[in-house]
Amino acid sequence: MTSPKPILISGAGLASLLLAQSLLASRIPFVLLERDASFAFRAQGYRLRLSAEGLDAIESVLSPAHFARFWARCGKTGGLGFTAYDALSAAQTAHTAPEQLSSRDGKIVGIARGDMRAVFAEGCEGSIEWGRTVTGYELTGEGVRAVFSDGTRSVEGAMLVGGEGIYSRVARQVSGGRLKVFDTGARGIHGQAPSGAFKGLGEGVFRLRDASRENGAVFIITNIRPGEREDPEVKFGWTMGGQAGVIRAPNDDYSIVGREAAEIAKALTKEWHPSFRPLFEQMDEGEAAFWKITCSSPSGVPEWPNEPRVTVIGDAVHSMTPAGGIGANTAVRDSALLGRLLREAGGYAPGVTAAYEKEMRVYASEAVHQSYTTAVSQFGVEIDETKSKTV
Hints:
By secondary structure, the protein is of the alpha/beta class. It is built from nine helices and 17 strands. Helix 1 runs parallel beside helix 4 (113-121) and helix 2 packs parallel to helix 8. The longest helix is centred in the last third of the chain and has 28 residues, at 352-379. The chain is globular, with a radius of gyration of 21 Å. The protein starts with 6 loop residues before the first strand and ends in a 12-residue tail after the last helix.
């Protein structure tokens, strides 16, 4: 008997790895095709806040023991809930009680993206092919092959899942160009500082906003977790954002990391209240990095003619702004849904991708709209789908 063809998964990010975990539990063969040379190749990004729906999706995929390891890596924050301050005067401008943001057990649950990726990768390492940049696919008589940037092809798979993020070539091909990601023009910087730098804040989720500039506001969001505030070895992260034109990299080179990015963050916050300046004055300069704020079509996930052997998950199909913190939570819902449908079908079967896409479009379109409308008020972004620049 011949072995069944594997499910090919392009990318080894969070959504792809959680889907791999679902296939692993269902004993469905798979291959992960990742462009990087290893998990350590690039920065893992900022800390993620998990929603109740996101946690439920993750728990539905992982075994009880595996989920316990994941849960142990999560931070559980109660404290003040969400509080907003004017960055210049330190005056409180908004407050949301913790129960309104809680994920589970009355706590706000968050985890570093790198920690989450490491837990999701457990047991999948041997199924990852590194240095594989997927540029498209070819359908065969009984399956599909991924096409790589060097012109070679993958093994024949039963199905291909594009999970390689906002620049997904699989998404463009399968949707006939209908899936688009727009550059909002808004930019940000990620940073970290020792826990002692955060003594001007309590436990909880905080936003500091500076609206003093004529060309737009600058803000940061940070999450301070209990039990770690007094540990000098612990670093907390913050995410800075600004409207289009406010945060600029030299020569518009947003690949800059380290000291150059850190110096820009420090310059933008030099007039902030003394309670908040240590977050930047004491920052780990080597960890600073720029990021672009992008978003898929605010009108929702478009329809395209279904291709039974190819579909897309995560940012490849519904990129979101960080507003509301729902992008990663929607991505893991994709993984749980598609994994369940494949398990119930015993592997690839006609109709699986169509059923997945029909259900995904509903919740993902709602999430993209929520993320975009929140970003309009927070970042002042605006996307005209007929004129805005795509990435």
